[in-house]
Design goal:
It contains five helices and five strands; from the N terminus they run E-H-H-H-H-E-E-H-E-E. By secondary structure, it is an alpha+beta fold. A hairpin with a 2-residue loop joins strand 4 and strand 5.
Length: 129
């Protein structure tokens, strides 16, 4: 059963301007420690930052909370697998909140064309609660 769907649309150039202006301060604002480690090895830094920021916005929308505790930029990690598939991970505190909501799985997908990036998240509830 679908619990919620979240969609976010973001200008990659907007993220580029913020990254150029604030540098590491912006990186630390958006990324978790795990994401920061992966960020160091990617060649398309702005694209990586944009996907993580937009993806986290889409997660917050799928959950119906917006970005506020316990759903924050640092309670969600989006890590790319070996072939680029994004996986979503949560802090323990957010995992407990998801259990209370009855949300069992979240799926994420990105798409981009030119300067625009879209993020889609589906939150799934397996058991009716």
């Amino acid at each position: 059963m679908i619990y919620g769907v979240g969609v976010d649309l973001l200008s990659i150039k907007r993220v580029e301007r913020l990254y150029l202006k604030y540098g590491e301060r912006f990186v630390n604002h958006v990324l978790t420690v795990e994401e920061s480690e992966q960020f160091q090895s990617v060649s398309r830094k702005t694209h990586y930052l944009a996907t993580r920021f937009s993806g986290k916005e889409a997660v917050a929308k799928a959950l119906g909370t917006g970005l506020r505790a316990p759903v924050t930029l640092h309670s969600i990690s989006i890590i790319s697998g070996e072939i680029g598939k994004p996986y979503i991970f949560f802090t323990d505190y957010l995992k407990i909140y998801l259990e209370q909501l009855g949300v069992d799985n979240l799926f994420i997908s990105f798409s981009h064309e030119g300067d625009l990036l879209s993020s889609y998240v589906v939150a799934e509830r397996l058991n009716k609660k």
